[in-house]
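ugh ok fine here u go
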Amino acid sequence: MHIKGKGSAISMKIDLYHLYRYFDYTRFVYPIVLDVLKVWAESIGYEVRVSVCKETEVNLSTDADIVAFSVYTQTARATYRLAEKLRHKGKIVILGGPHFRGPNRWEAFPHCDVAVNSICEEQWKSLLQDIERGKILPNRKQALYIEDRKVRFRYPNNFYEAFEDQKWYQIPSVPTSIGCPYDCDFCSPYLQGEYILRDIETIYNEMADVKGKLIFICDATFGLNKKYTIELMKAIAPLRKQILVETTLVRLTDKDFLNAMAEGGVKWISVGIETLSTKLIKHGKVDSEESLKQVIDDVHERGMLVQGNFLFGLDCDGPESFERIYKYYKNSNLDLIIIGIVTPYPNTKQYRQLQREGRIIDMNWEHYDSRHVVFRPRQMTVDELIDGYTQLYRSITTTRFVYDKARQIYANSGITAHATAMIVYNIFEKFDATKKEKALRRNKAHIAVSGPAEQS
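structure:
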């Protein structure tokens, strides 16, 4: 334990880490769960540092008593390597995060002193106090397992205090709900089956505390409760913030919903389109490229921009899907697209199905990053998926293409902070395309030489 100063109380020091392998959006949009843990711990007198960094940037000589990691599948192996070194130095290591939800939690046990599926304020504070009192010691033979089975997790009302430590380039994230009511095949969300809305006055106070204009509303099911959403947008409208949200196409067909978002200050809408090959249930009335065009026009009419997210390797898509999406993006008024390769994460129905069908070809968790192909697609070969994806990425990140989209974005929204941020992201994608292509080429060569890989 550490002494703050002469005559002062003894206090533990805690390091909280979110690791990433590539320079991605987590550098700009802070992982809020770590900030929640920080606020809770500081409220009972502990010193906490939150870091978002690569494996090589973790401080192995830290003076912290506890080092905790939020673990995503692609950084699991890096975390295990770090945990081994930190435990050797006598640190108590806590592992939690999406990778350990469901049956996969057993994987954490050999590498840590405490494994966390989900945790509430009472459990977190009790854990820290037990460690301070010596009830939980380093290098436990059997990791302690914690799960918030009673679903008591709530964001603290003083969550805004975490904003003070964020860098100038980071966009504050304000949550509006907890959990996810859906049971999607490709996802393993936090508090699945629950959907708890936060108090509107609390959200208003958090947004008011943000010094800058840009705010990301952290809610993957934003707009699910229409009445609540409209009330929230009316409440925060006087703040005149520029807000980024995620929602679904079906909600963008509701004019009252669109009007409310525009009134509340929403400027950038991220929507999961996924594919043009078939209509997904979540698309609602949007059943063609023409109806999608109408949705985008309705959004632009209200001064908002649209980011469309597409996935490649879905069972409904063949090699022709790349050219189709390229032509659509080039000729449409869609402001930005984010393209990814389907990644069947463990603890999801999608992973279990592909495993039953014998289509998983790579069990190296470091490749579960949307930069590698880890399964065999149904309607194309692995080579066709890699070649089609890299060619599409190359095509939409040429200097001319990025320039044309920048002009389009400014035409749709004016020269604004959110429009500029979207253009900057487009430029970042241009530089990232080369790195993704190299990773996929190595991936392709590895599969050709070694065949299905073993987990290690």
